[in-house]
């Protein structure tokens, strides 16, 4: 069985009210030797369904039923000792930055510094519009919200004045346990590279096969001006793909775990653990 001691393995999944609960899930993931759990976020799904599903076809049921990621990940940390917990991804175009800054800092503190903050601009236009976001400016909006959150995390008297986010000096605690703040994993394609260059600690590449990833890495490094760690979200568990990811220097692959009841989930975890080595 293929094995690589340098590349890390985690799990990416949707936690819903119809699948395994987050506590038992996280405990099983840790016991199977995975280093991390990343969970998806959707506040709701508009029934108009005008925006096509990027994966093609009908939107899977799991999208309609996701738990709040911060509540789910809090339960996950309570059931584990070492497992890293990440948002994959938090949709900052639908989130208040002051509240989210507190949620991230609180989870990082409660977990003992195990939070990884994955962020993205999202794809469902009607969903973001229901939160008052103009899809045409969602990237600029998210950038300002992240910059404002960094101010809150790192300043005792934080203030921010931008086009989309504006507040005079505020006091907000707790501060994150990790310093200066939890690692920011930026999701998205080439349009996210400037964002990674500014404040990203890693690129969260969503489902990219090794051959596609290989063509994008030189541009990422050129844009960022540094070697950026890469985590592949929803990665293939095929041995040849895992070997290719390792050859590309990928830091972590997040193997996709279907949303299912507990017995079925544990059985699938057994198979993913075997694939990971």
Account of the 3D structure:
By secondary structure, the chain is an alpha/beta fold. It has one domain: TIM Barrel. It has nine helices and eleven strands. The strands form two sheets. An eight-stranded parallel barrel has the order 1-2-3-5-8-9-10-11, surrounded by five helices. Strands 6-7 form a two-stranded antiparallel sheet. Helix 1 packs across helix 2 and helix 6 packs across helix 7. The mean pLDDT is 96.
Features:
277 residues, alpha/beta, two-stranded antiparallel ribbon, 18% strand
Blueprint (SSEs and pairs):
Layout: E1 8-13, H1 22-31, E2 36-39, H2 69-78, E3 84-87, E4 90-91, H3 97-110, E5 115-120, H4 125-129, H5 138-154, E6 158-161, E7 166-170, E8 184-187, H6 193-199, E9 202-206, H7 210-224, E10 230-235, H8 239-247, E11 252-256, H9 262-276
Parallel strand pairs: 1-2, 1-11, 2-3, 3-5, 4-5, 5-8, 8-9, 9-10, 10-11
Antiparallel strand pairs: 6-7
Helix pairs in contact: 1-2, 1-9, 2-3, 3-5, 6-7
Short description:
This protein is of the alpha/beta class and 277 residues long.
Proportion in helices:
25-40%
Total count of domains: 1
**Rg (C-alpha, Å):** 18 Å
| Biggest sheet details | 8 strands, parallel, barrel
Strand content: 15-25%
Number of strands: 11
Enumerate the spans where pLDDT stays under 50 for 5 or more consecutive residues: none
The CATH topology annotation reads as TIM Barrel
Q: Please, what is the CATH homologous superfamily?
A: Luciferase-like domain
> Order of helices and strands, N to C?
EHEHEEHEHHEEEHEHEHEH
Strand numbers in spatial order across the main sheet: 1-2-3-5-8-9-10-11
Kindly name the structural category. alpha/beta
Shape: globular
Distance between the termini: 6 Å
What is the average of the pLDDT values? 96
The DSSP helix count reads 9
CATH architecture: Alpha-Beta Barrel
CATH class: Alpha Beta
